Amino acid sequence: MDTRAQPRHDTAAAAPSPSEVHNAAVDEDAAGQGGCAQVHLPTGGMCTLRHRHEGSCEFSPPGQADALLTERRAAEGW
Ligand SMILES: [Zn+2]
For 21, 48, 49, 74, which has the most beta carbons within 10 A of its beta carbon? Predict the structure, then answer.
């Protein structure tokens, strides 16, 4: 009998990649300031990176998102 373990297939849906976030909305106020402003609905966090930033969104807690967005705009000169 062949007793070798079957190779694992990483096709499980347990960990969806950030690029597959479909349940997203946009905070229009933050978007109007030039932010990515994608809102992660399950947590209420908002992406405070620049609009059209590269890579995945970086969601900040709702209570901090405004301050972080303002800080980032000042630091990067949007
Ligand atoms: Zn983003």
Answer: 48
